Amino acid sequence: MTASNGHLSRRGLGRMALAAGTALSLPAIRPSFAQGAPIKVGVLHSLSGTMAISETALRDTVLMMVEWINGRGGLLGRRVEAVVVDPASNWPLFAEKARELLQVHRVDVSFGCWTSVSRKSVLPVFEELNGLLFYPVQYEGEEQSRNVFYTGAAPNQQAIPAVEYLMGADGGEAKRIALLGTDYVYPRTTNRILRAYLNSKGIGDADIMEEYTPFGHSDWQGIVSRVKRFAGEGKKTAIVSTINGDANVPFYRELGNQGIRAEDIPSVAFSVGEEELAGIDTRPLVGHLAAWNYFMSVDSPANTEFKTMWRNYIKNDRRVTNDPMEATYTGFRMWTQAVAKAGTTAVDQVREAMYGQKVDAPSGYAEEMHRNHHLSKPVMIGEIEASGQFNIVYKTPQAIPAENWSPFIPENANRRRG
Amino acid sequence: MRLPNLAALVIAAILVAATGAARAQDAFRDVLPGLGGGFNQQAEAAERLGASADPRALPALRALSEGLLLRAPGGALIADGLDLATGAAADPAGAEPVRINNRVRAALRGAMGRLQLVSPDRAERAAAAEAVFRSRSADNIAPLEVALAREADPALRARLELALGASRLISPDPAARAAGVAALAATDSAEARSALLEARAANPDLAAPIAAAVEAIDRRLAMRRYVELGFQGLSLGSVLLLAALGLAVTFGVMGVINMAHGEIIMLGAYATWGVQELCRQHAPGLLPYALPLAVPVAFLFTAAVGAALERGLIRHLYGRPLETLLMTFGVGMMLQQSVRLLFGAQNREVISPAWMQGTLALPGGALVTQNRLWVILFALAVLGVAMAAIRLTRFGLEMRAVVQNRRIAATQGIRTGRVDAMTFAFGSGIAGLAGVALSQIDNVSPNLGTGYIIDSFMVVVFGGVGSLVGTLVGAVTLGVTNKLIEPWAGAVLAKIAVLVGIMLFIQRRPKGLFALRGRAADA
């Protein structure tokens, strides 16, 4: 662990010692964990507030997986039990709820968070109490905690390949890029990485437009017409969208109404999946793109199994699956494998057992957990179809390891492969 | 003797015809499989079919572009139950739709455009001229010249000239390129401007005429941009107006700090969705009219919710603003979570009728989006109705009487409790109408209302509490200011700037733009 984490500061080492101490004292504090006591899985997803739209499906996915493992006789011969809390899209409440899960409910593992700001909020709690968190969403990178396993994509597994695609022949050879995002840490960091990347590919600042909007922004007229004007300078233009949550629906509606066709100005989104498209008439959006590591339309036996499982569990044939759900599913399966291998749910042993675990993920690839706590994942680019599903127009030949410390962020570049 | 001769001739003629057809068929059949190949092959096949004169090319291209082209396991391409290569009926069972990407889509658009330039249908020719203009290929020049020679409609001729100019810009012939620059200089099209800029790098000899042409187009476009910016401001203003009107009644007239206002707007949007789903299930013929039908339904539904809220809770808290604030805030959260539990956290899709989609060109060429235009008109209509109801009806008279002096109104025989309930119901109903309009421009989700509550209070306080005209002026002022600041400050800063501006303004004029004078203001 220390070997892969050479960047740890003295404070980090202290924290590790503390964590180790906590871990050693665990059996003494938890006499209730006698033979047959259930294994507890914490679920830390917003069920109310602005992020509920995305996170409730992840809660359901964890519950489905708990049912699945119990159906197979549980784990280590013990029943698995879910403890669901609602941090209500309130970032400080995330930290309180995380503490509640770890100290009151004494969960063995937690699955949770969507926005980066919520993850940053719970991080100190999981590190202090030596908990284990599985984080299932693509994010901006620049982080690596020994208490978190990141099962979503790092920028090199999503953002950079997507922009590369736009600049390639199939993507239309874009020479000008409009970076549109919601105003918080994920879009700003991602766009900083992308700007450095674009500059390194000979696209100067004059050919990059960058705009941010508040969460839930609904009036896109001005920005979309500015993008149109930006595109009218005689160079092929593309939009890279890190717009998050609810704001996407009015954004796409405005694109459709202002007649921006994907053939002329394609847009690629990093936070729009099948679930988000469920609320939009997708016919005017055909051809606009999204980059993920999984689409519901992936044709693989593991995905068929996953989709069947989901529809049987949710008892609704119209509910879709998406990338963060797949990352939750993969993370959960990986955790059960690691627990089985370690023969215990103790965090330090499970962490060690996690490294090198492989799962045949619904994405159709064998995804492996590396010592940097990130998964190797395939990159896929899909075009929106009239049905609201994605037509996969590009995927990498194999799963790509994560570069969670981006070489395009100078102050962190030296932390790479520490 | 003569008869066999004739027979021989006929046979020969048939043979010639058959081989001719076979040859044409061969060209089509040679290219056709490409449509089912990889993206590169598809694009190439589309180009070649677009250049052919085969009548079967267009249906094949159209089927591919609309996702209706199927590939049978054996490789045969099927559309409409027919094998495209043989024209024979084919069984589509087991066939998979052929997928395309943006590059193929662009090639298809150009190819189909070329084939449709001489279509008998005017709308098809117009679409074709646009498609060919956007596809920008030197191959377009010949078909465009043919089409221009046949076209009589002046509007279409102008579009064809534009497309021809853009295609000539990339012609290998320098004279044609110069002619292209001259043709585009006379237009007022942003796309033409872009085409000129694109040609600049490849044509250093034409740099001066291109620069002059771009400048000429810019002059024509400048006015249009101001009109569009003004429209965007008005549009934002109309949304603010709609959201705030209901509050102008409940807060402005009655003085109830109603934090559940946003959730009542949200209920109006869900009522719209409910009407649409009922139409879909029970009367599919009414589906295109679901939105107008939803207007009275949403009004009555939210008015009923408002009346229940006032009778059940709020009336017990009159004169206690802090408790009212906390209580309505709680009610709002409960409404929000109930909707989430009942209908789920996912967005509900409210379909925009065809007449609300796309853009409309104003005289002068400025483009405005249809849905926004309708929202502006709807907001003005709602404002008109609300003002008429307050000024011209018996209910409005009683309402004003109760607001001005409750006791004297009561001595006149007005049932003040009933008037309170009706006023609150009326304000809530208007909020419901806002929900109908917002279902067209925002998400129909449980969070819909949270985004509007602050803005609504801002507009009402800025415009002057209790004045509907103030609400109108306040909403439009804030909308336009926001849109004027946005281009250079960004959406986030524009919002902050407007908020700071209002705070400073309220310091100077605590009663807002249109302060009520007299007893009503002091009550």
Q: What attributes does this structure have?
A:
heterodimer; A: 418 residues; alpha/beta; 7-stranded mixed β-sheet; disordered N terminus; B: 523 residues; 3 domains; 4-stranded antiparallel β-sheet; 20 helices; disordered C terminus
Total strand count of chain A, please? Answer: 14
Helix content range of chain A: 25-40%
Question: How far apart, in Å, are the first and last alpha carbons of chain B?
Answer: 118 Å
Strand order of the largest sheet of chain A: 7-6-8-9-10-13-14
| Assembly state (oligomeric) | heterodimer
Strand fraction of chain A equals: 15-25%
* Shape summary of chain B: elongated
Total count of domains of chain B: 3
Strand proportion of chain B, as a percent range, falls in under 5%
Structure description:
The complex is a heterodimer of chains A (418) and B (523). With 418 residues, chain A is of the alpha/beta class. The N and C termini of chain A lie close together (11 Å). Chain A has helices spanning 10-29, 52-71, 91-104, 116-128, 159-167, 185-200, 221-231, 248-257, 274-277, 301-314, 323-342, 347-354, 410-413, and strands at residues 39-44, 80-85, 109-112, 133-135, 148-150, 176-182, 208-213, 237-242, 267-269, 289-292, 358-360, 366-368, 380-384, 390-395. Chain B is 70% helix and 3% strand. The model of chain B is unreliable at 518-523 (pLDDT under 50). Chain B has 3 domains: 2-103, no CATH class; 118-202; 223-449, no CATH class. In chain B, a hairpin with a 2-residue loop joins strand 2 (77-79) and strand 3. In chain B, helix 2 packs parallel to helix 4 (102-116). The chains are: A alpha/beta (418), B mainly alpha (523). At the A-B interface, helix 2, strand 7, helix 7 and helix 8 of A face helix 4, helix 9, helix 10, helix 13 and helix 14 of B.
